[in-house]
TrEMBL record, chain A:
Residue ranges of every copy of the FAD-binding PCMH-type domain listed in the record: 1-177
UniProt name for this protein: Xanthine dehydrogenase family protein subunit M
Keyword flag Heme: no
Listed SMART domains: CO_deh_flav_C (SM01092)
Upper taxonomic lineage: Bacteria, Bacillati, Actinomycetota, Actinomycetes, Micrococcales
Key word Nucleotide-binding present: no
Record keywords, A-Z: FAD, Flavoprotein, Oxidoreductase
PANTHER family assigned to the protein according to its UniProt record, in alphabetical order: XANTHINE DEHYDROGENASE SUBUNIT C-RELATED
UniProtKB/TrEMBL annotation, chain B:
Any one GO MF annotation of this record: metal ion binding
Protein species of origin: Ornithinimicrobium avium
The 2Fe-2S ferredoxin-type domain, residue ranges: 28-104
Stretches the record annotates as Disordered: 1-23
Compositional bias per record (Basic residues), positions renumbered to this chain: 1-10
Source taxon at top rank: Bacteria
Pathway: Alkaloid degradation; nicotine degradation
UniProt keywords, alphabetically: 2Fe-2S, Iron, Iron-sulfur, Metal-binding, Oxidoreductase
Protein name per UniProt: (2Fe-2S)-binding protein
Length: 299, 186
């Protein structure tokens, strides 16, 4: 199968790219890594009249670590961010989740910002943008705007980028010192889309959770964050084996099951996905509280 | 290596009468550098790199399986990094160094270490997926010259073999690593 005909544009300057997007509007589509877009074109599920290939634009391939964020340019490939030591130290969830993004060969081309713009509920990075309270910077010929994660994700496979806009930078937030993070997912084959996935960030001081955020892959329509601090309230997380406490597990299960809104498909029923979300959350909490072997990284 | 330039004047757009555009499709003039040789081509913007390699350049070693990035048969190296050639446009590949399976043999034409290991360990059965495995593994061993069996398995996880010859392919990865090390000692 082959893509339908389109006019291929390869701008060399950002302004030129923004001009093309403004000119072609809904007829135009941005090509970065192409690891989600090109299959869609090959299967002719989309047939844009104009393709704006941004791979030659300068300055968009940078990862920048600041005091409160990890800023990722539109041409940063998954593999580049995965290998970036500064980013992994500043926001460990990035590396923890990127390991689960498809296969290494796909990660060599696919871009972080592209997978956010694709807004697939089964994508790992949208969940990470949500849990880190991140945002996306958009540029158009008319100017620049920054959308929070909540504003950015409109629905499944739909983000708030207007046709004349280009998502230029993804900004992932950092957690306060002492926050521990973990990510897990269940897939039918490693590298496949997750049946369900969970990211957890936890900060415990004097036995109490002062930060407890969780976000999910494949079980919510748009990335969303469940604040677990109220759920964990009243439980002493400082005692060894706290995660095994029955009352805590029940409270956690109730909170998670009520929060997720999975759908049925040929791979799994909604009930099974909900069950996975509960189990994954429980396990990650246990892991972060140190009652199982840690595959986690300290922030 | 001296750069040899090859000019290919005409390219044939894929023939499908029902979807043939009414006007002739605009062709782009591009230069692809493949296995050290530069080729000037005229291709439509929608020409996939996999098709440019096979149809326009006659490098049919790169195989096309699923055409949506799942099977890995079309994997080539782009600036040394394995990439799906069915998920890249030829025009995007311009300016990059492409290595196909044809480029993996040693300069004297003898088999490279990964190819040799596949021969020794019976790493190929029908052979369809083999080019994608060879390119993927060649790049992987640059990154990890001494993989464990488990790491070898992980390294090839993005490539499908419909003969399910994975045991021997994993063995081939480890054998190729040995051959590379022996080659370095000589």
């Amino acid at each position: 199968m082959k893509p339908a005909p389109f006019v291929y544009h390869a701008p060399r300057e950002l302004e030129e790219a923004l001009g093309l997007l403004a000119e072609h509007g809904h007829e135009g589509k941005v090509l970065a890594g192409g690891q989600s877009l090109v299959p869609v074109l090959n299967m002719r599920l989309a047939a844009p009249a104009h393709l704006v290939d941004i791979n030659r634009l300068p300055g968009l391939d940078r990862v920048e670590v600041t005091d409160d964020a990890v800023r990722v340019g539109a041409l940063v490939r998954h593999a580049d961010l995965l290998a970036h030591e500064g980013a992994a130290a500043a926001q460990p969830l990035l590396r923890q989740a990127l390991r689960h993004v498809a296969h290494p060969v796909i990660r060599n081309r696919g871009t972080v910002v592209g997978s956010l713009a694709h807004a697939d509920p089964s994508g790992e990075l949208p969940a990470i943008l949500a849990i880190t309270d991140g945002s996306v910077q958009l540029r158009s010929r008319g100017g620049e705007r920054t959308l929070s994660c909540q504003e950015f994700f409109v629905g499944p496979m739909e983000c708030a980028v207007e046709p004349e806009e280009l998502a230029v930078v993804a900004v992932f937030g950092r957690f306060p010192a002492g926050t521990r993070t973990a990510f897990t997912e269940t897939a039918r084959r490693h590298g496949d889309y997750a049946v369900a996935g969970t990211a957890l960030a936890l900060r415990v001081e004097d036995g109490r959770a002062t930060l407890a955020r969780v976000s999910y892959v494949s079980v919510t329509e748009v990335p969303a964050v469940l604040d677990l601090v109220p759920t964990l309230e009243g439980h002493d997380l400082g005692t060894p084996g706290a995660a095994a406490d029955r009352a805590l597990q029940d409270a956690l299960a109730d909170a998670v099951a009520a929060f997720v809104e999975p759908g049925d498909d040929i791979h799994a029923s909604a009930d099974y996905r909900r069950h996975l979300a509960v189990v994954q959350t429980t396990r990650l909490l246990a892991e972060l509280l140190g009652s199982t072997a840690a595959t986690t990284e300290e922030n | 290596m001296a750069t040899q330039r090859v000019r290919i004047r005409r390219s044939t757009p894929p023939f499908n009468p029902s979807e043939a555009p009414e006007e002739p499709e605009e062709l782009l003039e591009i230069t692809l550098r493949v296995n050290g040789t530069e080729h000037d081509l005229e291709v439509p913007g929608r020409r996939l790199l996999s098709d440019a390699l096979r149809h326009d350049l006659g490098l049919t070693g790169t195989h096309v399986g699923c055409e949506h990035g799942v099977c890995g048969a079309c994997t080539v190296l782009v600036d040394g990094r394995p990439s799906r050639s069915c998920l890249m446009f030829a025009a995007t590949a311009q300016g990059h160094e492409i290595t196909t399976v044809e480029g993996l043999a040693r300069p004297d034409g003898t088999l490279g270490p990964v190819q040799q290991a596949f021969v020794e360990c019976h790493g190929l059965q029908c052979g369809f997926c083999t080019p994608g495995f060879l390119t993927t593994i060649t790049a992987y061993l640059e990154e990890n010259p001494d993989p464990t069996q488990e790491e070898a398995r992980e390294a090839i996880a993005g490539n499908l073999c419909r003969c399910t010859g994975y045991q021997n392919i994993v063995r081939s990865v480890c054998r190729a690593a040995e051959l590379r090390r022996e080659g370095e000692q000589q």
